Amino acid sequence: MRFFTFHHKRIRATFLITSLSVFVLGLFLLPNFTRYSSEGKNLFTIWLFGEEMGSVESKEEAEELISSVREELASNQSNLYMVEDLHEELIGEESIYKQVDETDKVYEKIKRAFKAHQKETLTRAYMVKVNNTTVNLANAGDVDELLTRAIDKYDENDEYEVKTEINQERIMSTLTARLSRRDVEYDQVTFEAGAGNAFGKDIAESELIEYMDFKDITQGITNIGFAEEVEVAETYIPRSEIVDVDTALSLFTEMQEIQQIYDVQPGDTLSAISGKVGISMEELVELNSEYLKDVNSTIRAGQSLIITVPEPELSILWTRREIVEESYEAPIVYIDNDDWYTTKSVVLTEPSAGFRKIVSDVTYKNDNLINKNIIKEEILLEAVAKVVERGTKVPPTFIKPISGGKVSSGFGPRSSPGGIGSRNHQGVDFAIPIGSTVMASSGGTVSAAGWSGGYGYMVLITHPDGSKTRYAHLSKVLVSVGQRVSQGEKIALSGSTGISTGPHLHFEIIINGTPVNPMNYIN
Question: Which of 7, 206, 211, 484 is least buried, going by the fewest C-beta atoms within 10 A?
Answer without folding.
Answer: 211
